[in-house]
TrEMBL record:
Protein name from the UniProt record: L-2,4-diaminobutyric acid acetyltransferase
Molecular function GO labels: diaminobutyrate acetyltransferase activity
Key words of the record: Acyltransferase, Transferase
Species for this entry: Streptomyces wedmorensis
Annotated InterPro entries: Acyl_CoA_acyltransferase, Ectoine_EctA, GNAT_dom
Enzyme class: transferase
Pfam families membership: Acetyltransf_1 (PF00583)
EC number(s) on file: 2.3.1.178
Sequence similarity: Belongs to the acetyltransferase family. EctA subfamily.
Length: 176
């Protein structure tokens, strides 16, 4: 299914599905975020190929990716979109691009697959992601619960914070 690009609150930025050619830019944006666990460049190429229907990319007026949200439908929880990563290039942060990306992706997933809940993990120090998911829950009139999914001790390297599971749902209609 081809989805027409959506316009974001930022002039000249549109939101649309991922393309394999976006993989290198998604890796670049993730690397520059300063918050995300960086995956290999190869994984972003695969993500854009195998999970394009659950990924959204923000593009500037020239078509260059400036932000993205990646996710997947949980195999054991139909109707649940797990948001893997959200990142926006520094020049577009704080402008509403991340919220627009998340809304566009959830709208597309709801139309194509059905959607009842969103899940994501956030480290306790990531205030921008905390605000993003709380704002999303308010706009969609949904409850948000939190619990530690993976404690810091579960990670093989020292220094990784716990990953707190944010569960948003059931999803309702977004506010007008």
């Amino acid at each position: 299914m081809t989805t027409a690009p959506l316009t974001s609150p930022v002039d000249g930025v549109t939101i649309g599905p991922a393309r394999v050619a976006d993989g290198a830019d998604l890796w670049r944006i993730a690397r520059g975020s300063g918050e995300l666990d960086l995956n290999s460049p190869y994984s972003y190429l695969l993500w854009c190929r195998d999970f394009a229907d659950t990924t959204a990319v923000a593009r500037d007026a020239s078509g260059r990716p400036v932000g993205f949200v990646t996710g997947y439908l949980r195999p054991d929880a139909p109707g649940t979109l797990f948001v893997w990563q959200v990142a926006v290039e520094g020049s577009h942060r704080g402008t509403g691009v991340a919220g627009t990306l998340l809304d566009a992706l959830s709208d597309r997933v709801a139309a194509e697959h059905g959607l009842h809940r969103i899940e994501a993990t956030v480290t306790p120090g990531n205030l921008a992601s905390d605000r993003l998911f709380r704002s999303y829950a308010r706009r969609h009139r949904a409850d948000l619960t939190q619990e530690v999914l993976f404690p810091a001790a579960a990670f093989p390297t020292a220094g990784h914070e716990s990953e707190v599971l944010y569960r948003i749902g059931p999803l309702g209609s977004p506010e007008a």
